[in-house]
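@channel anyone free to eyeball this complex?
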Amino acid sequence: METFIQLTVNGLANGAILALAALGFVLIYKATGVLNFAQGEFLLIAAFVIWFFLVEIGLPWVVGVAVAVAVGVALGVVIERLILRPMVGEPVISVIMVTIGLAAVLAALVQIIWGTRPRAFPDFIPSDTIDLLGATVGVNRLWAIGIVAIALLAFTLFYTRSRDGVAMRAVADDQQAALAQGISVRRTFAFAWALAGVSAVFGGALVANLIGVSAGISSFGLLVFPVVILGGLDSVPGAVVGGAIIGLLTSYTGGYVGGGLETVIPYLALLAILMVKPYGLFGQVRIERV
Amino acid sequence: MGVATGIYHTSYRADVALRHTRAEWVRLALVIVAVVAAPFVVAPYWLTVLNQIGIAVIGAIGLNILIGFTGQISLGQGGFLAVGAYTAGLLTAKSGVPFPLDLVAAVLVTAGVGALFGLPALRLKGLYLAIATLASQQIILWVVTHWDAVTGGRDSLVVPPATLFGLQLSGDETFYWVILFFAAVAALCATNLFRTGLGRAFVAIRDQDIAAEVIGVDLFRYKVLAFAISSGFAGLAGALSAHYYMIVTWERFTLDVSILYLAMIIVGGLGSVSGAIYGAAFMIAVPAWIEELSRNLSSLAFLQPDMPAIQQLIFGLTIILFLVFEPRGLSRIWERVKDYFRLWPFRY
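replying in thread with the prediction:
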């Protein structure tokens, strides 16, 4: 029973981090219909930028994070303008490949600028552990759960209450109808990518705090695919539920079965669920007409 | 010289012929002369590059059949290459199956595995299918690295040299002819595939799968067949790589390899057999050329420590620039060049 609680808490905490990273995907997908394969590299570059301003230059916390957010916004807008706008109306495979190319470029730039040596990230979340229902759990994991809850609330409010959020949903639903309502599709796209840059800054900081500042961060982007697809690409609650399912499944498999099966179980679960529900658990079912 | 006003056919046979004009036959002859002369004139380093290109051509043609012609996205080509390589390698190393037979087995086994992992394509489309095939890539690689009793897990598998009619097939020069033969057969098969009903059903599915079903294309059958055929090519490429390198390791079949193959068909041109060949040549030759350049030019020596990152940067930029400026790839550029000379001195 103790093992079970321990595994459950660990699984949920890992799931929370996955969900946070998945929200970045969902944000972009909901507004622009692009699945950003470079999300992991976004996290990577954001982590290095924060590390650079805080440790290398030694700016105070608030200024450093503000500058990093500015860099994130600039990166998002520039990438949208130069690379993704020409891809409007191109087949899915082209859009996938352009973000894969982008991922290679970003990872290479990070390596050329900062090298391959891993760096320690300044502790902004205490890393000690506490007892919870008889299970030992790192405080940083609980922080991750808390941050995901806040981010989720903010996303939901943004999409249902704010002008820009509603505009984004309108653009995602039908670009021509949105244009007819006076919504600038271009501005909305740029805004979505800027937001993705901002979310990468916070996600990158959180992930870097857990595993350090190194190229390993980018592999996080790959881990998140089962989560987003499982929950449904365009669903914010889906990202959270998907994160929890994958987190728990990985944790239980690692604890009870072992043998390295936990690294592949997310993909098996993904295939199984997609065979039953082709648009994920909460994804919008698209009805096709010829 | 009625060329400039168009090419006219008076029979169906002439219309479906692979080559129509004398210029096309001359170009084919030049290509044959070039590939036959290549091993006698190029440096040993470039001969290994040519061999790698030949293997990549087979895999890229297979992937283009699936993505470019049938419209089913796959991020799993690396996994299917692994199945082919391990099947051929294990049959040779452990059961002593003679050389051409293990290639046949590798093609059949990989086609079967491909059909199995193609099953999700019946319900999934676009991004969801892309991620499902990503899952199959990860699952295949996991099985390869964890099935210790058969594949040897993370250790590499040593493959004894292949022999054909008592002749040992090893070394770059001998193997060049083997690879060339299979690459030519693969290209010919793929080209002919799209002159048959099967190939046209694939294209119909790509253009609009629901409409294809309405006109009588059985989606279940043809989508699974597309995955099987495409994986069969990958199996052949993997099996050849097992014999060529005489060693099989899982590191040669990671997701990066799947992405490299995707890049080949994007750069070469989706939905074109010759495009797959140009793309494979481009994506293998350019990094090899950069590497040689940086080794030989002392003025570029300061770049040496950053070489992997620079290669990666160029890889990414190549993909992005092609997609932004010429989404139809090298085969379209080549067509434009041909048109320019055909119509010269007029613009159009």
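from a first look: Chain B touches chain A through 46 residues (CB under 8 Å).
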